[in-house]
Design a protein that fits this description.
1 helix, Methylamine Dehydrogenase, Chain H, 409 residues, 29 strands, 4-stranded antiparallel beta sheet
Length: 409
């Protein structure tokens, strides 16, 4: 099994209505280009945050938002903003420092943003029951931000992922549920309160430990992965479908197995193409490097798994892919591996379809341990309107507290 720093917390990505429109723009402009250049936009120094394990999200003005797992004023993590400045530089601003108490600590999942510019996320610990929480950050007139705790988890149900948001403003995520796992929904009510609802509890035979987060599909169904459990104990891909009466029906779409070619231990968020096919990654294979896989929906409702790429056993092209994938406008896939590569510090990679069902991998950047460009990129990537990629490394940089980086053609 692949192990990593803060392996029990992962991020998930989601698009609100305004960001969904922005994402379409990104896909149109993003193009395939094998020659890339990496640039560090910001190195954290602990006082402004440390260990940015989660991915980034753009607003409509081109500013980036993210979280750090630790550091900040109280050492318990931050929410930060990076704004483009003159001369190609970026200016970092800490929007909120967690205090390791009722407001939470250890945010390790990617944020989402609504149409009003409010940010939503999860904290792995803290809250009324010291078991984590869901929070909202609201921009104030004059530039400040206010944190509001929307829901606190009880012991054993700590949040395992980030959030997704539907068109009605409801939030969805996954929690621990005593180590087995559950899927929850938060519904906004009048007066600013929120109501929590458990949509599904796993039972090990259909998977457990859903740390990979959720995908809200075009059909309105929820899709996700469990790292363990299922028929062979190596993880599952599942679907949750809304039914009448407010109930949700769960269906296992695929059971992973340790058979030497199939992947196992899926932890990354799924993504969906225009045909409704699902793409994700596993951290392990019979060769230990991990895989990128596709699940194709058949006309009869069945799903077929295809391994698009297996990372090599010596880790030279990376291993342990954990962040979600992202498509460009030409159908190429991009992602990161937390470890491995030519310099053992992780990679940024591209997978390009060849037209015959096979895919070609290109390494766009190799991170170096103990180097200024950072290392261990556990999060996924996001495109800007010019086709540049942005992400985070959990360690490295000028003060070894992690970085925000850009990879451009």
């Amino acid at each position: 099994m692949y192990c990593q720093k803060h392996s029990s917390q992962k991020h998930s990505t989601a698009n609100t209505t305004i960001l969904a429109i922005f994402a379409v723009t990104l896909l149109v402009w993003a193009t395939h280009a094998p020659a890339q250049e990496e640039k560090v936009l910001h190195s954290f120094n602990s006082s402004d945050g440390a260990s940015p394990d989660a991915g980034l999200v753009f607003d409509s003005a081109g500013n980036l938002y993210g979280t750090t797992y630790s550091g900040g004023s109280h050492g318990s993590g931050t929410v930060f903003e990076l704004a483009p400045a003159a001369g190609g530089k970026w200016k970092e601003k800490v929007l909120y420092s967690f205090s390791h108490s009722s407001d939470g600590f250890g945010p390790a999942a990617t944020l989402i943003m609504d149409g009003a510019g409010n940010l939503y996320g999860t904290a792995a610990g803290g809250g009324a029951h010291s078991a984590g929480l869901v929070f909202e950050l609201t921009p104030e007139t004059g530039g400040g931000w206010t944190e509001t705790v929307l829901h606190t988890f009880s012991l054993g149900t700590a949040p395992l992922s980030g959030l997704v948001r539907d068109a009605a403003g409801n939030l969805y995520g996954t929690g621990g549920a005593g180590g087995i796992g559950l899927v929850f929904e938060l519904l906004p009510s009048s007066g600013g309160s929120w109501t929590a609802k458990v949509l599904y509890k796993f039972n090990t035979t259909d998977g457990f430990f859903p740390q990979g987060g959720l995908l809200l599909g075009a059909s309105g169904n929820l899709y996700g992965t469990t790292e363990y459990g299922g028929t062979d104990g190596y993880g599952t891909v599942y679907e949750l479908k809304p039914e009448t009466g407010g109930r949700w029906a769960e269906k296992v779409l695929y059971n992973f197995g340790n058979n030497g070619t199939d992947g196992y231990y899926p932890t990354a968020n799924l993504i969906e193409d225009g045909m409704g096919n699902l793409y994700g990654m596993t951290t392990g294979t019979g060769e230990f490097g991990g895989t990128v896989f596709e699940l194709t929906r058949g006309q009869d409702g069945s799903w077929t798994e295809s391994v698009l790429h297996s990372f090599v056993d010596n880790g030279s092209d990376g291993y342990g892919p954990t962040g979600p994938l992202v498509f460009d406008g030409s159908g190429n896939l991009y992602g990161t591996t937390g470890l491995g590569g030519a310099n053992s510090g992780g990679t940024v990679f591209e997978l390009s379809p060849n037209g015959d069902g096979t895919w070609t991998e290109t390494i766009l950047h190799n991170f170096r341990i103990n180097a200024s460009d950072g290392h261990y990129p556990y999060s996924g990537l996001v495109f800007d309107t010019r086709g540049n990629l942005y992400g985070t490394t959990a360690e490295g940089g000028a003060d070894d507290a992690g970085t925000v980086f850009e990879v451009r053609p």
